[in-house]
Amino acid sequence: MSMEVNHPAPLRLLELAAHSLLSNEASVLLVLEQLTVNLFPPLLTAAFAKGHRKALKALVQAWPFPFLRLGSLIVQWPNQDSLQAVVDGLEAFSAHRACPRKSELRMLDFTLDSEQVHSKGASEALAKFPFWLPSTVKAEMPQAVARPKPTENMKKGPKQPWEAVEIHIDLFLRGPFKLDKFLSSLLTKVEQSHGALHLCCRKLHIEEMPFHSLLGILKTLKLDFIQELEVFDWFDWFWALSDPNLSATQLGRIFNLRSLKLIYYNWAFSSRGERPSSYFLSQLTRLGHLQKLHLSYSYLSGNLHYVLSCLWVPLHSLEICYCRLLDTDITYLSQSPHTTCLKKLDLSGNNLSYMIPRPLGTLLREVSGTLQHLDLNHCRLKDAHLSALLPALCRCSHLSSLSLSDNPISSACLLSLLEHTTGLMELKQVLYPIPVDCCMYLHGLSWGPVNKDKLCQLQAEIQKQLQAMQRADMQWSPPLPLLMQLVQFE
Questions:
Q1: Any stretches that span the bilayer, and where are they (predicted)?
Q2: Whole-prediction pTM
Q3: Pick from 115, 192, 298, 312: CA 20 to 30 A from residue 33's CA?
Q4: Rg, C-alpha atoms of the chain
Q5: What is the pLDDT of residues 400-455, one digit of tens each?
Q6: Closest listed residue to residue 110, CA positions, set 90, 83, 130, 81
Q7: What CA dihedral angle connects 252, 256, 261 and 265, to 10 degrees?
């Protein structure tokens, strides 16, 4: 039965009826079986808003639809008690219950979509639930409570008692860690359900998490559901995963990964048999759906080919930041299959000054057919380097954003870059560095006081040229966070 309401007036009447019914919470429990399905969504919304725990628990256990999405309710009313009541309602979903459950629920979704994350009240909600990592991908169904399109796992008709219920939640796990009451209760419910409840985490962020604490959580998750994995300080974590006794949590079992982000890892590519890297590389070969790879603050010098050669499918996004890349790494990348599909390339934090015009220029030419986002921040690039890159850069006809922050480039060179790139009609955003004639640079980074007058003059000249070239859709800007701290140069 469709839950869409076409006219606002009936919806208001349903809300009034829901609040009236909840004024006596005990009455809800008595008449629940007699309620029409149209009353369930406004009744659950009202119960969540007011924290009616008994009513919430009963509504979850009798939910007449296959899908229940709570993201917008969590943002609007970040109430731990209401969430706990929803979890308590999961008691009905047990493989060992003697009688069939009444609920038609097959998916309980706690995640937030991108619109909800940026909405008013989201920061308060996330502050109260620090274990949550908001989804960055807009959900297909932004309604608080909605019925999903039929899928193979959600066929019409009554369910059998043994069908599992999926619980969707994104997790941000950071040590020192103490389980939140809600999360602890949820994990316990899933573990005790003996397969009747499946905990599905699409995006998982792990940071300085004690491995033994993490292990218990990983054993509860459906690892093949994880699509985005972010791990900070991951050396000890992958060392522990190399233990064959922990095969249930091996990276290779997270085989549906689309995005992998690894920060701070001391690679060991020598022939001494260091297990963490060899183990990790062997698991990479099993990630047949990986599209995005982000490696930062890792010593990869001359060994990028070990990582990329393990991937069977060309990447769409590659970020290799502060990894001390060598010219051999860039040469291998320019010759790899990934250049045919790359839409985003981030080489920030690597010294590329001695790789121009080759092999960096060669790489840009190879990716020019697909590249949309290019980040070359803090790469020691000077005027001569940027000028030499211009021919290859201007071939990137699909480029929509370019970032060159923290490179010692002059104002004149930036104006020349503007003149040459206005023909790239899809290029809309350019983040340019504070020019060397406006501040000092030390070890490739902008340093010291900034002449704000000269910087403003440059910005005015840029705007003048953009108007003259009829590119008002093109936005050029310096690093805004840094500008807030600028001091007038005298």
A1: none
A2: 0.82
A3: 192
A4: 27
A5: 999 999 999 999 999 999 999 999 999 999 999 999 999 888 877 887 788 888 99
A6: 83
A7: 0
